[in-house]
Design a protein that fits this description.
Order of helices and strands: HHHHHHHHHHH
Structural class: mainly alpha
Oligomer: single chain
Shape: globular
Distance between the termini: 25 Å
CATH topology: Serine Threonine Protein Phosphatase 5, Tetratricopeptide repeat
Number of strands: 0
Largest sheet: none
Number of helices: 11
Radius of gyration: 18 Å
Number of domains: 1
Helix content: 55-70%
Strand content: under 5%
């Protein structure tokens, strides 16, 4: 397996379970920008994830890296844009409507898998691009478009990566990240865009600048979560932040992060497994 394939195996493994874990959290009102602390407590105030953003320079073309843990991906219900006269007769439009209307991670993943299995993911991506262009102030369209692109990468990998489509997968990964940035320019507090962006960045090759950026995004997202209505999805922010600390060779901070998450979400099975060394 070449290095590019290793990167995409890690990325695709994370995509597979993110949407499954998360229910829909709502965006919070703007909060002060947090500051990352270098102490043993990994979640001292500070930001997707992630997702997390707020729009940063694009990461370099991904090179392969081994990453151990899958990240978990989120689900938000976007407001539908104005319908066009032929929308009612457009089956792709109906499928994308169902994707956008998903109210849980399970529903969103099911809608994405339906698009993959029916061979309609490309058409859905084009539909989402058009909706994003028609509704430039709605962050949910570029967020969902980014998730669709990540799922296309996974489908391509599952079908059997080749030298040609490995390059294409790299381009699609960059496009997905750009769409998360677009969503965050519209709404810097969008939880889903923050989390998915940061969670996907975890699977990029190790790089001190980028890894510190992921820590800052996720730490800030944890601060933001404290101002929002509680959601089980928020536990995954602690999971991915701990994973990132572990990736950076800071196991003590990883353990402290997972322990802090478990105090907030004592029944979360992923955090329990992390603390049990699984």
């Amino acid at each position: 397996m070449n290095k590019s394939s290793i990167f995409f195996v890690a990325l695709c493994g994370g995509i597979a379970c993110v949407l499954t874990y998360l229910d829909k959290p709502r965006s919070a009102p703007p909060a002060p920008t947090p500051v990352v602390a270098a102490s043993a407590s990994p979640v001292t105030t500070t930001a997707p994830v992630d997702p997390a953003p707020v729009p940063e320079p694009e990461p370099a073309q991904p090179n392969p890296a081994n990453a151990s843990e899958p990240a978990a991906v989120p689900a938000v219900t976007p407001a539908a844009g104005a319908a066009k006269p032929d929308d009612a007769a457009n089956p792709i439009h109906k499928l994308v409507d169902a994707l956008l209307a998903a109210k849980s991670g399970e529903q969103k993943q099911a809608a994405l898998q339906q698009l993959v299995k029916s061979g309609q993911m490309d058409a859905a991506i084009e539909d989402l691009k058009q909706r994003a262009a028609d509704n430039p102030n709605n962050p949910e369209y570029p967020t969902t478009l980014g998730e669709a692109l990540l799922n296309k990468i996974k489908a391509m990998h599952d079908a059997g990566p080749t030298a040609d489509n490995t390059d294409e997968m790299g381009i699609l990964a960059m496009q997905a990240d750009q769409n998360f940035n677009t969503a965050l320019k519209i709404d810097p507090q969008n939880w889903e865009a923050q989390f998915v962006k940061a969670a996907s960045m975890y699977y990029w090759p190790a790089d001190p600048t980028r890894d510190n950026d992921v820590v800052q995004r996720l730490s800030g997202l944890i601060d933001q979560q404290e101002t929002m209505t509680a959601s089980p999805a928020f536990a995954q922010t602690y999971v991915v932040l701990g994973n990132e600390y572990q990736k950076m060779g800071q196991p003590d901070k990883a353990q402290a992060t997972w322990q802090l998450g478990l105090t907030q979400f004592p029944n979360d099975p992923t955090l329990q497994k992390k603390l049990n060394g699984q």
